[in-house]
Amino acid sequence: MAQNASMEEFEALLNESLEIDTPNEGSVVKGKVIAIEAGQAIIDVGYKMEGRVDLKEFASPGEAPEIAVGDEVEVYLDRVENARGEAVISRDKARREEAWDRLEKAYADEQRVEGAIFGRVKGGFTVDLGGAVAFLPGSQVDVRPVRDAGPLMGLKQPFQILKMDRRRGNIVVSRRAILEESRAEQRAEVIAALHEGQTVEGVVKNITEYGAFVDLGGVDGLLHVTDMAWRRVNHPSEILSIGETVKVQVIKINKETHRISLGMKQLQADPWDSVQANYPLGSVHKGRVTNITDYGAFVELEPGVEGLVHVSEMSWTKKNVHPGKIVSTSQEVDVMVLEIDPAKRRVSLGLKQTMRNPWEVFAETHPVGTEIEGEVKNITEFGLFVGLDNDIDGMVHLSDLSWEQRGEEAIQNYRKGDMVKAVVTEVDTDKERISLSIKALGDDAFSDAVDGVKRGSIITVTVTAIEDGGIEVEYNGMKSFIRRSDLSRDRSEQRPERFQVGDHVDVRVTNVDAKTRRLGLSIKAREIAEEKEAVEQYGSSDSGASLGDILGAALKGDKG
Questions:
Q1: DSSP assignment of 159-213
Q2: How far is CA 150 from CA 116, 145, 234, in A?
Q3: The pLDDT value given to residue 83
Q4: pTM exceeding 0.70
Q5: How far is CA 370 from CA 360, 426, 427, in A?
């Protein structure tokens, strides 16, 4: 009985001892490396328990394991005993538990943590934070996109924890936040040492269409394309290259945004200071066409000094033509200085002024009366335009086409492209007009025919046709028409049929119209004039003599 009691007591004491001293599964315990074999470390965790851990669990990513017999290590106890009677332990889980405790404290205190990038995953990278694995998004690797993350792999460096959830095992970190913080401190130091107007050296870091970013030693400044040179710069790459060291002037510093504006041209003499002295009004200079627009062309007189040749000052003759049809980019041209506005930094130039006015040249070489030949360039309702020397045109008005035909009829005889001869009748250089006459090439039959004939003259005409409204007559080859009412002063005698073709009739000239090329003739007017003359010579109506007596006497006088 006594022996049985002592055995039960011993068993109770043993169980109590095991319950007190055996660690709980799922906890971190201390152990000692007692042997290393077959790629594993055998660790005595006390309580007469031993377990095995792969050596790789003692190595940081990319490094060799650091473990030796006799080392004391902390391991995670998964199970007190497995099928082989060994404790199931893990160094990784111990490190993870330890790391999570440490990281949660760092996250709460907003402190940086050290880690190493060891793998690439979709959207970013994996980072070992001393036992806990975190996710590093691609956008959080650097302040600028990183094309090759190779040099960063395995490198121990600081990270900022952005988010962590122990229950889900998620940690998100940022390397960029560390760089930006460091960069901000560095920028603040550099900016504090700079002042506007200061000349500094920097390295061209990046080139864009609108300028270049220059590294001033931890802070970037923008060198705008318009501040690179006094001359026109189409693209910054014309004068700068990435990596080049340049001397610049600090133009402006924005203390709030930390933006710095830089300039290169400010370190050079402003060519506009001597523009008025170098380019007096009316002087002619050689220049290079730098830009062409709808309203004109820009011409560089020297680096930094450009002038505009307005489209109206480009050609004497080419009106309403795009400037690109007259000059081309990079072409060297002679220009005249027309106006200078130093305040607005504008120079007005003229291209046509370097060439003589073609209308003045034409007036000198083709005085009035000169015969010319040219091509019909255009036909309008009021005349022909004929091409002349130096791309100028002369106009033949309808009234100057023919002596015989009306202008509307005569113009039908011409077609665009016809070669015609004409006589210069007027040159107006101010209005840029040249008047020509084709009919002046030939004799004026009308003028020859009526030479010496004037209003009131008595001439003899030949009847060429009898019509109801009057008779057609001819004088020196010129046809005229006498209306029925002008055939006689006596109404009973105003009969066309009393005349015959071939009759010679004396008539009085009532009008000489050179424009319509017509003679106004009247038998009635001749008879009235003869009556008036007879009255004046042979008597007066007041003397009592009858008209028959006076005319009879006049007729006798004619016979005598």
A1: EEEEEEETTTTEEEEESHHHHHHHHHHHHHHHHHH--TT-EEEEEEEEE-SSEEE
A2: 12, 14, 38
A3: 53
A4: no
A5: 15, 10, 11
